[in-house]
Amino acid sequence: MSREQQAVALARKAFETGRSKSLEHRIRQLKNLQRLFTEKQDVISDAVKKDLNKSEVGTQLYETLGLEGEISLAIKNLKKWAAPRPVVKNLLTLSDTVYIKPEPLGVVLIIGAWNYPWAVTIQPLIGAIAAGNAAVIKPSEVCVHTAKVMEDLLPLYIDKELYRVVTGGVSETQELLRQRFDHIFYTGNSMVGKLIMEAAAKHLTPVTLELGGKSPCYIDKDCDISIACRRVTWGKYTNCGQTCIAPDYILCEPSIQDRVIEEVKKSIKEFYTDNPKTCPDYGRIINQRHFKRIMNMLEDSTIAAGGENDESDCYIAPTVLRDVKPEAKVMQEEIFGPLLPILSVNGLDEAIKFINKGEKPLALYVFSSNNKVINKMTDETSSGGLLANDCLVHYSVSSLPFGGVGNSGMGCYHGKFSFDQLSHLRSCLIKQLKMEGVNSMRYPPHTAKKLGWARFFILNNVDLGWIGQMGLLVILTVVAAVVLQNYLV
Predict the structure, then answer these.
(1) pLDDT score for 438
(2) Is there a contact between 344 and 257 (Cβ–Cβ < 8 Å)?
(3) Which of 148, 210, 437, 464 is deepest in the core (most CB within 10 A)?
């Protein structure tokens, strides 16, 4: 038995003991996980620094702070999330107990990504624990130091039998995908997402795919361009552009392109100094393979700012490209790096047309002081999320579902959405062996009169208070006893 097979088998064996279903156990595990981030923050930050050159403050701000908030939210609301959920009844089921019962799926495979190695790996784990599942966690092998820290620390804080960590590369991931899981949660690119989905299909395993794509950013000529560019600069160059919801490119009218370039350059200097290479808040490309991939995108575009690079240090300066053509190399795939192309469009309608020609993005950004512009962009496009007059921050709102649509992914998570995504929402209807007269309308022989009564009972939904339900139940009991049994023949 391979190491991967053994991890899955042991996780399933632990799940079958039933201990993960206990709310007390789930809360205890979540509190232990929260304790990890307070007690081992220095170890976590040191590993992320080695992998991505993130500062300790940057690691807390973009990685662990959000996780602490998600854990606190889950602990606070778990009893409510896990409780049976009453539903509206029709008249036929008024005397019955009808509800939705969230229940664990079983063993969940979580395949993390390297760009925010803690945030996008542990956040699904929070949902898996809260929903009562076991999990096998596969951190990205690209972040070598972070993967090792996860492997070492997670078993010290949470149930090491229920929540198994498996490290390794492509072959280990492929071996995991040959196993049967009850759900697979993958964060990464669409090419690998298709392979995940293909593997999952062999076992009819449901998947959540958090992918990416080219997230557009339209800047209206009538907005405050200085503020807009400041926020776009932050959203684009955070983590050296290696963010799945980073604004991938700018669409604007030709008349404001020079102003946009100048304002972005000002913000780059403000955030990262005259020499971003020496700035502690500016990261690095994850490895030389990605460095070369990004540099190749520059071949047929004009650099308006930046462009400096150092392959030995995996450094690419914050770079702005002007007068970019739709057929340019930089527009053929998600950039996932610190290049910001600017494309000219003749107004909002042309921007919307351009956006809709491509795949549906994970995020769409629009900057405008005119609500009509924002509303038109909202109504006439489709994306995983839409944000007006800012970048990235919708990710931090736990009450918003985070996920893609079409090529940018399927399924969503964050807050209660994580819990629901990794639960089976079981439909439950509990009847009593009474009031059989009401059922006469469904039993053969079928007649027009029975159909008429069935239409009345089934097509009328009721959402009454307790007193109203009791009163209506008395009336229906009389109907059942007096009318149905005598006339539904």
Answers:
(1) 79
(2) yes
(3) 210
